[in-house]
Structures are given as C-alpha cells and as structure tokens.
Write a structure and sequence with these properties.
With about 80 residues, the chain is an alpha+beta fold. The protein has a single domain, classed as Conserved Hypothetical Protein Mth637, Chain: A, CATH 3.30.1200.10. Helix content is about 30%, strand content about 25%. The protein is built from two helices and four strands; from the N terminus they run E-E-H-E-E-H. The strands form two sheets. Strands 1-2 form a two-stranded antiparallel ribbon. It is globular, with a radius of gyration of 12 Å.
C-alpha cells in the first residue's frame, strides 16, 4: 500500500501480494479506510465483507474477503490493474 497518491488504483503484483495506491494519508486510520474502500470498489464487495486482519499501522496489510474465492479475487484485481479508480 502506498498512501498519499494522486489517484487510487491497483498497481499490480508485488511478490505474493498486490500493491495498491490510495489517496488517503496514513493518519488516524484514514489509509486503512482507503484500502477497504478501494478493494470494495475493485472487487464489487460491500465494505462489511472486507476485514483488515493485520497491518493497521503498516504499509503491508492482510485483509479477509468474504464471498469470493481466490480465483475470482485474482481475476478482479488483475482486471483493475493500473486503472485509475
């Protein structure tokens, strides 16, 4: 996750993870909210189905996604790769 970006978007694969750019600054949980908001939009999930499991104060985050299998998550993230949202 890279906060303070001009645009919110999925940047692409970064090892075993996905790199995201978000607009929100890493202050008072705003960046975490930005990650959830971006994932909800890209994956067409409600925010309630996305849980930040770890990394609340870190650039590296682990999220739990309810309602999609791993293949569908990969497909949707790949489709959004590099598109401004």
């Amino acid at each position: 996750m890279a906060p303070g970006s001009r645009v919110a978007r999925v940047v692409g694969r970064y090892g075993d993870a996905w790199k995201l750019r978000i607009r929100e600054a890493p202050e008072r949980g705003r960046a975490n909210d930005g990650v959830v908001r971006l994932l909800a939009k890209v994956l067409s999930l409600s925010r309630e189905r996305i849980t930040l499991v770890s990394g609340h104060g870190s650039r590296d985050k682990i999220v739990e996604l309810e309602g999609l299998d791993a293949h569908e998550i990969e497909r949707r993230l790949a489709a959004a790769d590099r598109k401004e949202l």
